[in-house]
Amino acid sequence: MPEINQHGQVVNDIVPHWKGASVLRRTPLNGRFCRLEPLDATRHAVDLFDAYALGDDSDWTWLASTQPESVDATAHWLLGKVMDDALVPYAVIDLRSERAVGVVSYMAIERLMGSVEIGHVTWSRKMKNSPMGTETVWLLLKNAFEHHYRRVEWKCDSMNVASRRAAERLGFVWEGRLRQKLIRKGRNRDSDMLSIINTEWPERDAELRAWLAAENFDSEGRQIQRLEAFRQGVAEDIPR
Fold first, then answer.
1. Along the chain (240 residues), what's the average pLDDT of each consecutive run of 10 residues?
2. Which residues contact 66 (CB under 8 A, 6 or more apart)?
């Protein structure tokens, strides 16, 4: 709880025994629908080029990169992430096909402050209408909080309404807009900031686990209850 210090000023909570979060290493994270595998430019380039080829430039509008036009261009793009020591980059592996279908990274890692961002989110259309996106973010959140991070961030272009809605569905809380944060592809970018903090995580974790559970999917892999239903604690049937 906030306190009054010796000067009569209100100061915020003490964080007892804080020594910083643990190092986030490039190790696999395993789920039921997908596996997050440390990104490898050689091993994952063909799969990701094929996956991204199912889409078009509209999938890349709000991203820093553009759609790679060849396997070699894909490998070059991936290598930039692999060689960046400030990132912990992953390929999302679809367990049904054992092929890479997306990319995501930890970034903006501030271990001593206990803060980390989920970024470089580049899903292919092979992840569309599947639980892999939700499970991927849950695996990253779970791993970060297990490593004693106090805050996990999500930032997106303010025009990328779909990204913000996806984050809010997962339980991220909108904190505000960073005006004129970047210039991207020659255009101004205002960045929307969202986060989940460690005190919120047990509830978010329970909701995500309940949604991802086998019993929440029918024989054709369709969800039975929406994630929002678990958050509200109310059963909700999905029209067939």
1. 93 94 98 98 98 96 96 98 98 98 98 98 94 98 98 98 97 98 97 98 97 94 94 51
2. 57, 60
3-state secondary structure of 25: coil
Residue 83: which of 25, 31, 139, 41 has the closest Cα? 41
Q: In this predicted structure, what is the pLDDT of residue 1?
A: 82
**Residue among 157, 138, 103 at smallest CA distance from 227:** 138
Q: Tokens 């991203």 correspond to what residue? A: 63
pLDDT score, position 24: 98
Cα separation, 100 vs 36, in Å, equals 9
Amino acid 232 reads: Q
- Half-sphere exposure (Cβ direction) of 224: Cα atoms closer than 13 Å: 12
- Give just the sign of the alpha carbon dihedral 105, 138, 197, 63: positive
In single-letter form, the type of residue at position 106 comes to Y
Cα dihedral sign, 26-211-198-154: positive
What are phi and psi for residue 100, nearest 5 degrees?
-75, 135
Beta strands at 173-184 and 187-197: parallel, antiparallel or unpaired: antiparallel
